[in-house]
Amino acid sequence: MPMTGQFSASPDGRKLAWITSAGYVRVGDGRRVTTAAKGAAAGFPCATPVWSPDSRRVAYVGKGNSDARSISVVGADGKGRGKAGTTLGLCHLAWSADGRYLAGYAGTTEGVYRLDVKTGKASKVKGVGLANHVQSLSPDGSKVVVAPLSRNAPGGDGSWPGSFRPAVVDVATGKKVAIPVKGSLIGACYLRDGRLVVRVAGRTANTLVVLDRNGRQVQRLTEPAAARRQALLQIVG
Q: Per its UniProt record, what InterPro entries does this chain match (predicted)?
């Protein structure tokens, strides 16, 4: 894979998708590289592609000059390309495990938007004024993990963050869902079965705390020390 900030790891941990400087959507599995599509927005670190829950398709942002962009979906083999809809939430796309919703933050950082892949309609997530990262959606798309920004905080350059203070927001009500984990939280991600994995900073190694649907702690895993300052891309489990 060439040097690019526009890439995504598949949920099964076996493939990567990335956007070239020419706007090609490429897929690699360690053995071969396939050009799945053309016409993707290129040169914008925040316009990352995202894999479908079954690791068979890739959603990506199309080229354009407006704040709202078209989101297309294509098979990893380059077949079955289609339009999912148009949204202002084109940055750091996340895909719900049920396949119904995509979410991303606006390029201006002014809010997070959820796109209904079934209807093609997008709506702004309540309760999020400013944000510069979307990590994941709950399996049914009803909650979103974001990195909210205070009014005077810098928005950054759109690159995927090495760490972030996570907030879980209910899409319908805009209310923040409590994360019952102590320590310095530096990330969170939903698993496809509804468990929430929370990343906690450590002096020598970070810890992944797994919560069930009711917020009860069910597991703690210590990350490799070498991953302490690395970004959280995907959790396979």
A: 6-blade_b-propeller_TolB-like, WD40
